[in-house]
Amino acid sequence: MKILLLSMVNSVHTIRWANALAEKGIEVLVFGLEDLKLKEKYAHPRIIIKTAGIGESMQGSAIGKMKYLKAVPQLHSIVKEYKPDILHAHFASSYGLIGSLTGFHPFIISLWGADVFDFPQKSPINALVLKYNLKKADRITSTSKVMAIEGSKYTNKKIDVVPFGVDLEVFKAFEVERIFSKDSIVIGTVKALERKYGIDTLIEAFAHLKKKTQNELIKLLIVGGGSEETNLRRLAAELGIEDSAIFAGPVPHNDVPRYINMIDIFVALSRLDSESFGVAVVEAMACEKPVVVSNKGGLPEVVEEGVTGFVVPAENPEAAASALETLIMNKDLRESMGKRGRERVSRLYNWNGNVSKMIEIYEELLKQKD
After folding, report:
1. Pairing state between β 291-294 and 265-268
2. In what order do the strands lie in the sheet with 291-294?
3. What's the gap between Cα 294 and its chain centre?
4. pLDDT in tens, 327-351
5. Could you count the other beta carbons within 10 Å of the beta carbon of residue 152?
6. In the predicted structure, residue 64 carries a pLDDT above the cut 80
7. Which residues lie across from 28 on neighbouring strands?
8. 251 DSSP 8-state letter
């Protein structure tokens, strides 16, 4: 089987899909709009990478995306030369558009989040572009049920839910050398420091918690980099918690399990619905961490309320602080939620099972083609 993936070549999600398919014996060519920066991450010799070198902006206007049309002739040539069995676009707007314009079938589109939650809301033209792309697709997939429901506003076709799960051999509980003392209770997150992810809400919730409990053992660990880092550090200082908080900065993805295992309670308080699927939350649950998440996007779908964690209203520091206090005061609850979280991930978000499901979709399409 030969698959031509249209996707962001530097995205860890693209890299994981390409490597996983190659490991299953599938030949993979990845075509992206931007220049490749992470070639060493594509670990399998079966993977070919080609790029248009024109850059991309996944949340731009339909007019802005017209520049991507320059990649269509190159993509036509690649299709003619590579002769893929299936064309698979990851992201329904930009990559969905250039994939649709090739006229190649079988054609799959995978929804990612901003392409259905944000892009079509910007203008009627954007909504028409999305509808056109989905009309051209033979199959459509989504990483979460909530995103499939959103995508259904623009197509009558069935949308298959194929979660972007985790490798349970990589993401698991293990002993690590902690940044804080062993008797500390560490609240933390691993996320880009951007406004949409609600890191400010986490900092405010932590400040509420510290003020109420006066517990010096409660610490905050924020892992990640982004445009809001300066503002978030300033907020921590203004709230008087800088001595109890550490900003660890961005870390390589292969180091994420180690940092998650420094955390006792994992928090994800995104403020936007475009948080289509909580991969970071699933990773934390796989490491047996109880979680506190906002009620946005696919986050409530991932967490079983009161069993693997708590779901709280977005942009509500007081509610988040209350959930955190419950977990801080009950070690047995933290441990039981953590174990149930891993069981849930094993059942629903096992990466090997998710890859197998995508390959089944490929095989079904090829049978229909024959």
Report:
1. parallel
2. 245-249, 218-223, 185-190, 265-268, 291-294, 309-312
3. 15
4. 999 999 999 999 999 999 999 999 9
5. 16
6. no
7. 3, 47
8. -
The gap from C-alpha 208 to its chain's centroid, in whole angstroms, comes to 29
pLDDT at 82: 95
The 3-state secondary structure of 75-86 reads HHHHHHHHCCCE
Give residue 195's region: left, alpha or beta (phi > 0; psi -120 to 50). Answer: alpha
Distances (CA, A) of 39 to 18, 26, 74, 355: 12, 19, 20, 22
In this prediction, residue 116 carries a pLDDT of 92
- Model pTM greater than 0.70? yes
Q: What percent of the chain has pLDDT over 90?
A: 79
Question: In the structure encoding, which two tokens stand for residue 162, read together?
Answer: 């194929």
pLDDT of residue 56: 58
Please say whether the dihedral angle defined by the alpha carbons of residues 151, 152, 156 and 159, taken in this order, is positive or negative.
Answer: positive
The pLDDT value given to residue 275: 72
Question: What is the Cα–Cα distance from 301 to 85, expressed in whole angstroms?
Answer: 33
Show the domains of the chain with their CATH numbers. 2-165+350-369 (3.40.50.2000), 185-348 (3.40.50.2000)
Average pLDDT, the chain: 92
